[in-house]
Design goal:
Blueprint (H helix, E strand, L loop, with lengths): L1 H14 L1 E3 L22 E4 L4 E5 L5 E3 L19 E5 L6 E6 L3 E4 L21 E3 L4 E5 L2 E4 L4 E4 L9 E5 L7 E10 L7 E6 L14 E2 L6 E2 L2 E4 L3 E4 L2 E4 L21 E7 L4 E6 L5 E5 L12 E7 L5 E5 L5
Parallel strand pairs: 8-13, 15-16
Antiparallel strand pairs: 1-2, 2-3, 3-4, 5-6, 6-7, 9-12, 10-11, 11-24, 12-23, 13-20, 13-24, 14-17, 14-23, 17-18, 18-19, 20-21, 21-22
């Protein structure tokens, strides 16, 4: 009789543990990124009124959301260490942004080999000629030539862009990045600028592309220049036909064309971006408020969007400057 009672009680407990998408699961903060498809789930235990929120690595929390980046010191300790959860990346997990412009995937900053590097201890107006590399991409983009070249696939879907980011996070100083436009279809939509790592890209399952914007799936709140007659600030587009804005007071025109060499100057001290064109000798400047909105805050990272199939850029090393 005793063994029969244990079986029944065990069955009753198990039967009360159910996947739930009702109001009780709001505490798990599931959305278009954190959901069952990315292995973030919610269970409720009816008899005890508990809500269990799970993470992809098999851990769970009761009555609070489960996130890697909420765990104490998952990336290490220190104000200059940041954590970014990446549920839709491949592989999924989290990124740790570490000191000295380095980052790790799914492991703490302590996993990076220790090196001795002299860096400024205060915020000053030093200028650095950057030797950035191209890193993570969204959409049909091939990164080649020791991570210096990005090219949109020639068979890519027309009508949606694809993006690639640099690998260096910038929080202080003035940084110059030299870029050659090797191919830009119709000299139109190729975009060069920056993105704040605090400003999430909006990604959705099944969307393998990325556009500059701020409202729909597969959009990024980037700031910078398109090839022709258009800019973006925090994902909002502006051109000569749109009323003036507080961020940009320069002319709207063809900013660069195929074969141009341009310099993107990222000024973290004045919160500005400057675009210089070697061929035309022209210079354009915009303000990027990094104190008001989360999607503008430092650190910034290089962001390039290749809109048309075949669009292609090359980062120029310091030897080419």
């Amino acid at each position: 009789m005793l063994s029969l009672i244990i079986v029944i009680v065990g069955f009753q407990i198990i039967s009360c543990l159910t996947i739930n998408t009702k109001q009780e699961c709001s505490i798990c903060e599931l959305d278009n990124q954190f959901n069952a498809q990315t292995n973030y789930t919610c269970y409720t235990i009816g008899l005890s009124e508990l809500t269990i929120c799970t993470c992809p690595d098999g851990q769970y929390l009761m009555n609070t959301r489960c996130r890697y980046c909420d765990r104490p010191n998952i990336c290490g300790s220190g104000e200059d260490i940041l954590c970014k959860e990446t549920p839709t990346a491949n592989p999924p997990g989290y990124i740790c942004f570490c000191p000295n412009n380095q980052f790790t995937f799914n492991q703490p900053c302590s996993a990076i080999p220790t090196t001795t590097t002299q860096r400024p201890t205060t915020s000053t107006s030093f200028t650095e000629i950057s030797s950035d590399k191209l890193g993570s991409a969204i959409g049909n983009i091939q990164v080649t030539s020791n991570s210096q070249v990005a090219e949109r696939g020639h068979t890519a879907q027309y009508g949606n862009g694809a993006s690639v980011r640099g690998t260096i996070l910038r929080t202080v100083g003035i940084h110059r990045i030299r870029i050659q436009i090797e191919r830009m279809y119709l000299n139109r939509e190729l975009f060069i600028g920056i993105q704040s790592i605090s400003g999430d890209s909006i990604s959705c399952p099944g969307y393998n592309f990325d556009n500059i914007g701020f409202t729909n799936c597969a959009t990024t709140r980037a700031s910078g220049w398109f090839g022709n007659n258009k800019i973006a600030v925090f994902g909002q587009h502006y051109n000569s036909g749109v009323s003036s804005n507080q961020y940009y007071n320069e002319t709207y025109e063809q900013f660069y064309i195929t074969n141009d060499i341009i310099t993107l100057i990222i000024n973290c001290e004045d919160a500005t971006l400057t675009l210089q064109n070697d061929r035309t000798g022209k210079e354009y400047r915009m303000s990027v408020d990094h104190g008001t909105y989360s999607y503008g805050k430092l650190p910034w990272i290089l962001y390039i969007n290749l809109f048309y199939p075949g669009d292609k850029i090359r980062l120029l090393s310091s030897e080419n400057i």
